[in-house]
Every structure is written in C-alpha cells, then in structure tokens.
C-alpha cells in the first residue's frame, strides 16, 4: 500500500511538472490533457485518476508550483531578524531576482493572470484573491511598523501596500511582455528602491 501511495504521488508530481511546461508553451485553451499526459510519459487515464478536468489540473498546477517557488521569497517578509523596512526591501529584491530566474515562479504568475480572464476558473482563483488580501494586510502591517502612519507622509500604510503589490505585478507583467526591455534580476536593487521611494518615511 505504501509503495502504491508513493507511486501515485510521483505520478501526480510528474503530471504537474508536465502541465507547467505545456500550459507555459500553449496556454490554457490550446493545451490538451492528452498532450500533458504524453509530456509526462503517462496515459490520459492517469490524468483523470488525479484530476477531474483541465480546469482542475490548471488550478492545481498554479497552486502547487507557486507555493514551492514563492515560499523562499515570501519568507523575507517573516524574517524577524530584520526591521520592517529591510524585510520589504529584501522581499522585493528576492521577488524580482527569482521572477527572472525561476521558471515555475514566472510561469505560475502568468498562468494566474491568464486564468483570471477565464470564467471556468473563477471559483478556483478565489484562493488567489484571499492570498492577495493577506499579502496586502501583511505589507500594511510592516509599513505601519516602519512608521509610515506616523511620518506625516501622504501615503497611508494600506495604500502603500496596494502600491507595492501593483508595482510588483506591473514589473512582472511588463517583463513577460517585453523581456528585452530590462532584466528584473540585474536591476532588482534599483527596482526595489524605486518601488519604496515615496512610501517609506524619509530619513532626516
């Protein structure tokens, strides 16, 4: 029984890895379950053993690959050894660097953006919206701890958090559309400073 469970887990992982590649190459509409199964070296029946349909496989591919790829990046926001400003700065640098270098991170980001336009994926993407809400709250708390709401600046912590999220998504989407325009990894430090300028309190 243990061997069977291990084999099932390996099969599921192989399908998710193949799905990531196929969805990246062909997009949701053009990708087929047969093509994904073939890429994984499995049968279409193996796909249906683990996933009800293409929509479920698409959402699982986003959730599981994003979770593994993003965890080291988001860990910077939880690093209590650094101050709140530094935690946000490190997070931004890590995200911009990983976005260019980590295939799973940038692909699942692109998939989630594409999925938001597809009616059959709306229910499954509710998890993404909850994550975004939690991310905004976390950033606002860090900005508040950094003294943004006591600094006399015009940007409240909640607005600053939304501005950071919008900037992160904007940089990512811009690079996906125009990869020759700039290098997020090489310009990570400068991009982080540009995002935070005008949000964090100015040092006298």
Task: Summarize the structure in words.
- InterPro entries: DNA-bd_HTH_TetR-type_CS, Homeodomain-like_sf, HTH-type_TetR-like_transc_reg, HTH_TetR, Tet_transcr_reg_TetR-rel_C_sf.
- Keywords: DNA-binding, Transcription, Transcription regulation.
- With 204 residues, the chain is an all-alpha fold.
- It folds into two domains: 51 residues, Arc Repressor Mutant, subunit A, CATH 1.10.10; 145 residues, Orthogonal Bundle (Tetracycline Repressor, domain 2), CATH 1.10.357.
- Helices cover 72% and strands 0% of the residues.
- The protein contains nine helices and no strands.
- α4 packs across α6, α5 packs across α9 and α7 crosses α8.
- The protein is elongated and about 60 Å long.
- It starts with a helix and ends in an 8-residue tail after the last helix.
- The mean pLDDT is 89.
